Amino acid sequence: MSIDVDHVICGKIEFGSTKSISFPFETPPLSLRFLSSLDGLLLVYCIRKLILWNPTTNWYTILSDDYPKHGYAHEYDIGAIYYDQCNDLKVLHIKRRYNNVFASVYSRRFGIWRDVEFMNATNFGSTSYAWYVGTLSPKTVYFIVSQSWWVIGKKLIVAFDVSSETFKIINFPLTKDLIPSQGHLITLNRKIHKFVVSKPEELIVELFKLEVEVWHKVLSIQNSQTVSFQSRRHQPHIMEYNIWILMSDWGHMVTVKLTDQELHYLQDVDTFNGTNGALFIETIISPFS
After folding, report:
1. 200, 162, 214, 195: which is closest to 266 by C-alpha?
2. What local confidence, expressed as pLDDT, does residue 64 receive?
3. pTM for this structure?
4. b/e code 56-83 from CB counts within 10 Å (16+ = b)
5. H or E stretch including 20?
């Protein structure tokens, strides 16, 4: 199976640079999910397998073959890549089985899995909750957890500390209606941020930064409009020149025209992950020890 790759130069897609690379396994496109990206390595789901893959060298290692306890179920599971304090690359695998949540960590250095304890007294293992792709800041992986199909339902952020290997809950920012806001997580200049697109009739985009578990509003942008842009409807955010293209939780594609000050703040986006794609750098880092 081939995958299209575009070059990104100085934060902008270099048009005409598209090339195709081969995925190591023949698989239907709908069976492939990108879970995490770090230093040129991608964590990929493919037919109940977790694969650590370098798309530049096409080197890969299958993580789930030696870990048959549950395998990987893409309807219920989520994963992320990170470095621990000893510079060992690790893979976090969060599994939901029988209304419970289980977590395991893989060490590239030692090539083994081990279990870590998840929080007690939560119902996040229920199928009424949806987990979204993790976002990595220097020492924490953040996951949005929300009640499935309910835009105004219960929404929280589960944070995994990569040093202590412990989980905790962080609340969402509150809107003027005092309900948890919608939105997506991104990393800007190595700090976790969350952007929020308001309801279509208002069209205000707000950007929050998390500091010591408190959300602070850093930008509020009103120069926005909805557009029909179906080819990008699976991407929660992308930047082109001074136009920020966002997908709201209400299902609308929104373009935001940025001032120079706003563009300067937003130009340091470190990561982008989505189930249908990921941002990566070209390296020769090995996925195996």
Report:
1. 195
2. 73
3. 0.83
4. beebbbbbbeebeebebebebbbbbbbb
5. strand 19-22
